[in-house]
Amino acid sequence: MEMFGGLTKTSSRIAIAAALGMTLGGYAMSTPAKAADLGGDCCADLEERVAELEATTVRKGNKKVSVTLSGWVVKAINFWDDGKRTDTWIGDKDADLTSRFAITGQATIAPGWTGGYNITVTAPGNFIDNANQTGGNVFGIASNQFGQDSGLLSGINTLYSYMFIKSDNYGAINWGYLSPASDNPAVLADLSGTVIESNAVLFESPSFFLRPNGAGGGGGDFASLSGFTIGNFTNCNSGIGPIGVDCYGAPQSGVRYDSPTFGGFRFEVSYTDYLGNLLTSKGPVLNGSAGLGAYATTPEAYDAALFYTGDWGNFKVSAAYSYTHLNAAVGSADINETNEIHQVGATVMHVPSGIGLYGMYQNDRVEDGRFVNAVTGSVQRTPESDAWYLKPFIKRTWSPIGATVLFGEYAQYEDQFGGLAGANVCGLAGPLAGTASCASGATVAGMFVNDSEVERWGLGVMQEIDSAAMHLFARWQHMDVDVDFTGLSAGGTLSNVNQDFDDFDLFQVGGIIFF
Known about the structure:
The chain is mostly beta strands. It has helices at residues 42-55, 426-429; strands at 22-23, 66-81, 86-91, 100-110, 113-122, 157-167, 171-178, 252-258, 265-273, 300-312, 315-326, 339-350, 355-366, 370-372, 379-381, 385-399, 402-414, 444-465, 470-489, 494-500, 504-514. It has one domain (4-27, 40-514): Porin. The strands form 2 sheets. The chain has a 16-stranded antiparallel β-barrel with strand order 2-4-5-6-7-8-9-10-11-12-13-16-17-18-19-21. The chain has a two-stranded antiparallel ribbon with strand order 14-15.
């Protein structure tokens, strides 16, 4: 999944890449001056030097379009502990946080009017790109607990490819494969300068299996693993992926309008062809029921976002709200159901002290959504999920090399088991403890998830190195998963059980260099 599609269009809000690109269209290479040589080979020498210059610079074609190369390289060393096994993994950050480069260009059409393009390419990520040893395919999940590489996303990928026409007075129209309006506005309202280092999106969640707390198993590092990953309980109803928030955070084919800024406010609206990521039908695969109906038409999305930045005396404020309407919803038996996502994020920072607080909230619901429970046979409502995230921070220039940011994190992701809603999860349950456990054997006919909570907290530090356009960072992330199951016995009796899982810890040290 590619969540930071909006990073290119809103980079000024996180102050990381506004002036870090290199304009190659007007780039000139210099060579030491030579004494004038009026011999017969002067022109041949000049032509050779021009040919060499052209071979080492970006060609502009018609010489009217500027070309800019920008991006970043990010690398991290990751140490994790799942309650029984520890290991280390080295690689990039994930999805569109990973290393990337963008080629952008524009040309003047008329005074106040420009036209241009953007092509952004990303490198392989760190966690979600690894192999899925279960043999299935859930958002390209793989587990670093098994330490395997994968071919799912092992090559470079095109993140965006679109064109635009922009007016200084009337805004811009963009079309192609691009970032929708509701792709991460609430996430990028973070003014701490640590959005790449850590944010509310749980890119790591689909990559690690959970160990049931108090369960047996023995006999090896993997024997007590359940079939559940953290990502099973951080699903988006949109089907974008098990990432917790920013639930329409993926590039799509479509058209987007970006307004000019008025008094600190601006807005975006977009229409995209929503492919539903891995979905090919309405629910039959995800909720374990057959024959619920295919999509009547190509799924579509309409979304909008409102942004604000401003200075209030000694305080700097950044805020964003986005609304997403999808005419298709995951796990619903009704092909006419819709998915609606509301997200809001804001930062208030006291500039003299550098103390600030960022927070975001997301509500993700299927309007009157319903699905067939594979265990009980009853029709149930698709769960409505909520997620919220807080990041207190202090940003001060204690060192001449650049600013230092200290930050903390706390988040909750409630009832995001959408892909498991109503499914018979006995085959995934593993050695769960309690009366509704599949370990009870024939006495349990089936089991489904009733509700869930993923709790997360962490600490981090980031050091800017201004002279090298670089960040160095270290962070600790802790996650705890708590799930309520309902089991159906062979006699038809329902029994509820709460299952806790071993805590998961991730320690990450790395760096980013911008260009």
